[in-house]
UniProtKB/TrEMBL annotation:
Domain of life: Bacteria
Assembly with partners or alone: Homotetramer.
Compositional bias per record (Gly residues), positions renumbered to this chain: 110-130
Keyword DNA-binding in record: yes
A single MF term (Gene Ontology): DNA binding
SUPFAM superfamilies, per the entry: Nucleic acid-binding proteins
Residues spanning the membrane: none
Protein name per UniProt: Single-stranded DNA-binding protein
Length: 183
């Protein structure tokens, strides 16, 4: 049976990215991403915001792109997988870690440098400069990243010359139920 380890985050960068390189020249970029949800407090009835912080790690070309374009506060879409680890801190205590290894990234919001507004109005999906980047699966050690292809505009269709007459259907009593289907 196949298994799935997939994480999708839409949130804001909590700090500027940190890019470093291994001795072999592989770029690694770490950033924290904050996601928030709202709920009502049972006791007071007030709306409470619950913020979760996620450690995200980018590798290779995607790390270089993240290091160049991500900034503190910038909205971002990240798709990747969970990676669990352990380490021993300076006091000798064993600690557990949870990281998200990014495989795709989409910059959200408006263009930087176009004023102080970074997307405006809380809209996380609307900007003119959304950039999508993928981390291609490894193929014989060559793991290059490339920007996602830009969506193509559909070619305009010519208008039909004259409308075709609607086909006559036999009366079944169910003709008006299309609007009542809940899905």
């Amino acid at each position: 049976m196949a298994s799935v380890n997939k994480v999708i985050l839409i949130g804001n960068c909590g700090r500027d990215p940190e890019v470093r390189y291994t001795p072999q020249g592989t770029a690694i970029c770490n950033v924290s991403v904050a996601t928030s949800s709202r709920r009502k407090d049972r006791n007071t009835g007030e709306s409470v915001e619950d913020t979760q912080w996620h450690r995200v790690t980018f590798y290779e070309r995607l790390a270089e792109i993240a290091g160049e374009y991500l900034k503190k506060g910038r909205p971002v879409y990240v798709e990747g997988r969970l990676k669990y680890g352990k380490y021993t801190d300076k006091d000798g205590i064993e600690r557990n870690t949870v990281d998200i290894v990014a495989e795709q990234m989409q910059l959200l919001g408006g263009r930087e440098g176009m004023g102080d507004d970074m997307g405006g109005g809380g809209g996380m999906g609307g900007g003119a400069s959304r950039g999508g980047y993928n981390r291609a699966p490894a193929r014989g050690g060559d793991d290059m990243d490339a920007p996602a292809p830009a969506p193509r505009a559909a070619a305009p269709r010519p208008a039909p010359q004259r409308p075709a007459p609607a086909p006559q259907r036999p009366a079944t009593g169910f003709d008006d139920m299309d609007d009542d289907i809940p899905f």
